[in-house]
Specification:
14 helices; 0% strand
Length: 323
């Protein structure tokens, strides 16, 4: 047992060391290439830079390892993971997230298999562990969207103040970008810079909605684009939109208060079997191990897992109300 644990630890350490070494070497090459481009552009070492082609297009990496980056570019899932990581404000790459999920699956699943000797149980626990990094990213993404939605009425008030003071719409966007905190300020700054550097306002607003896919922001962007084409009092429209968003917040908080007991019941009923099973295993491993050493125990364990999952989904469907 000790020898196997040492082998697993050494293997994981070597894999991580190789990944870090490859990413460091790649970063060093990129730094040298960037310095060479700067020296060529400034004519400090190379006098003739006419043949030098510098790519100034926006390029986002899916992984710090070039081979993994080329492999991820062939899948449609990788850009979605990259967008999720951007929306959650995490400095990870899609390849890093997949690497963490694979490492968690391999290590946790193998340790459970060593302890119990059941392949299916090891695979099941490994899949749950592999889902944990993705669940963390989803949680950070949802928290950032909630923070954006809560600060959106104040941002609209800033735009209304700027418009009534005589500023243009673009100047009002710049005011929001400079005065609003994260995450509203950086997102509106990107929108302002895209429009300022030549993109149409419609394209810049569509890009903003793609980065922050919230219904309230979609309504605001639609109102701005309609006013740009047909005219009207945009300040009044934005002020009414801010008041509408505040009223929706009040209603959502009331709904959360009334459904708090149901949500707490769902969490307790979902995790109580798992916590109870782990506790009983620590007290009497021989008795609880019958669940995966005998055929009827495995069938009961599978049925309990399916029923717990279905019950959790039903409770979630009941307590989640769209406002």
């Amino acid at each position: 047992m000790l020898l196997l644990l040492v082998v697993v630890f050494a293997s994981v350490f070597l894999v991580l060391a190789l990944v870090l070494f490859a990413s460091g070497a790649w970063a060093s090459d990129r730094a040298k290439q960037t310095l060479a481009h700067l020296e060529s552009a400034l004519a400090t070492k190379v006098r003739d830079s006419r043949d030098l082609i510098v790519d100034i297009r926006k390029s986002e990496l899916l992984s710090a390892v070039p081979m993994i980056n080329r492999w991820l570019l062939s899948f449609k899932l990788a850009p979605r993971l990259r967008m999720m990581l951007y929306q959650s404000n995490l400095k990870w790459t899609a390849g890093g997230l997949l690497m963490m999920m694979a490492t968690a699956f391999a290590m946790i699943g193998y340790l459970v298999y060593l302890r119990t000797g059941v392949v299916l149980l090891g695979l099941a626990i490994g899949l749950i562990a592999a889902y944990a990094p993705f669940l963390f990213v989803s949680y950070r993404r949802r928290a950032r969207f909630d923070q954006f939605e809560q600060g959106l009425p104040e941002a609209l008030d800033l735009m209304v103040s700027g418009l009534r003071a005589g500023h243009s719409l673009i100047a009002s966007l710049r005011l929001v970008a400079s005065e609003s905190p994260d995450p509203i300020g950086p997102e509106f700054r990107i929108c302002f810079e895209e429009q300022n550097y030549g993109l149409e306002l419609r394209t810049a607003m569509e890009n903003l909605i793609t980065r922050v896919p919230l219904q309230d922001l979609r309504i605001v962007a639609t109102a701005i684009l309609i006013q740009k084409e047909s005219g009207g009092n945009l300040a009044e429209v934005l002020e009414k939109g801010a008041n509408l968003i505040r009223e929706r917040f009040k209603l959502k908080r009331q709904v959360r208060v009334h459904t708090a007991q149901g949500r707490l019941t769902g969490w307790i009923l979902s995790f109580l079997p798992l916590v109870l099973g782990v506790g009983l295993y620590l007290i009497d491993p021989q008795t609880v191990s019958l669940l995966w050493t005998r055929q009827i125990g495995r069938e009961m364990l599978g049925a309990a897992t399916v029923m717990t999952f279905v019950g959790a989904m039903i409770i979630r469907k009941i307590v989640n109300m769209e406002v």
